Input
Amino acid sequence: MKSIDDNVDLNQKKIILRLDLNVPLNNGNITDTTRIDKIIPTINFLLKNNSKIIIISHVGRPKGKILNELSLKPICDDIKKKINTNIKLITKNINEIKASDLFNNPNEKVLMLENIRFYKEEEENDTNFAKLISSLGDIYVNEAFSCSHRTHSSIHKIPKFLPSYSGLQLNTEINALKKLTSKIERPITCIIGGSKISTKIDIIKNLIYKFDNIVIVGGMANNILEYKGLQIGNSLKEENCKKIVEEIFSISEKQKCKIIYPKDVLVGKNLADVSKIKLSTDIKKDDMILDIGPETIKKIKNIIKISNTVFWNGPAGYFENSNFANGSYEIAKEIAENTKNGKIYSVIGGGDTVSVIKKINLFSSFNFVSTAGGAFLEYLEGKDLPGISALN
Output
C-alpha cells in the first residue's frame, strides 16, 4: 500500500479524496466534529503540495435518493473555516460533470461533490460510475478507513482506474491496529465490553492467540457469570451463548491467555436506580448488574499497569446513568495515565467507548482513538477490508 506522503508528485494534480464525513447532524447543525477534525491535516498537506482537491464523501443513508437534510453543505462550511480556504460544493448531477467543468477558476483549490450516497450506483459498486468519477482526477486518495469495509464504488472501484494512495489518517489507523495484531509489544491486554458477546466473539477468537489478558466487562460479562453458574437476576444478557463462552474459555486455556471477569459489581433494581456494591456471588433475582465493582476495578488497573499494550472496546457498565459510570471512568483514567507516562501503547475504539472518554475530557490522552466502527472491528477480526485490498 503506497502512502500519499511517500514522495508522490502532487504538484497541480487533481486529487480525488475519499473522506468519511458521516458526522451527526441535528437540524443542519453538526453535533460532533471529530471525524472532520481528523482529516484536516490531510487536506492541508495536499494544499501545501499545490494539489487541487475533489472531496467525495457521504452522510447518513439516503439509499440513492436526494434528501436535503443529508446535504454535505454544513460539513463543507465547517471545513472551510478550519482550513481557511473556500470550498465549492457541487450539487450538479455527477453523471453530467466533466473534468473540463472543474477548476476553471484558477483560485479554486478545493471542490466537494454532493453526498455520494445520493446515487444508488455508489452502494451497488457500479464500475461505470467509478470510471466516470475517476475521469475527474489524476490521483485517488483513500482517507476513509471507516468506510473501507464497504464494497462501494468510491472505495473499492475507483482505485482500478487511477494511481491510488492511502491518506495520512488511514495510515495512522492501520499502524495503530498493527500494534494489536502483528507488531505486538507484550504483555498485551484487551478490555472488551458492550451488551452482546456474539458481536465481539470473532475479535476475541482472533486475538486470543496474541493477547495475554482479555478482560470482559459490561453486559457481555453477565453471560460469563451465568456460564460460571452464578445468578445474574434481571441483568442484560444474550440468549443462546453457552457454546460461545465455552469456546472462549477452551481456546484461552490452550493459549495461556487469562480471561478476567467481574468478581464484584454495582447493582440496581432498574436503569435509573442508585448503585449498590455486591459480590458476583450475591446477586438476587430482582437485581440488575449495571457496572463493575471496586475490587474488579482494582484488578483491572493492576493488569493495565503490567501491560505494554492495551486495547479497550466497550464500556464497563451503564454509563448513561452516572451512578454506574465509575467502572468505565476508572478504566479510562488508568489507561490515560499509563499512556501519558509512556508505560503503555493504548488503542481505544467503539462509539460508546469514545463517548465515555469524551465525557471526562480524555479524548486526546491515548495513543490512538478510532471512530471507524465496523471497519475497525472487521480488521481486528482478521477480515480483509475491500478498500484496503483495492489500494494494495
The chain has 14 helices and 17 strands. The mean pLDDT is 95. Residues 14-168 form a domain with the Rossmann fold fold (CATH 3.40.50.1260). The chain has two domains: 14-168, 178-380.
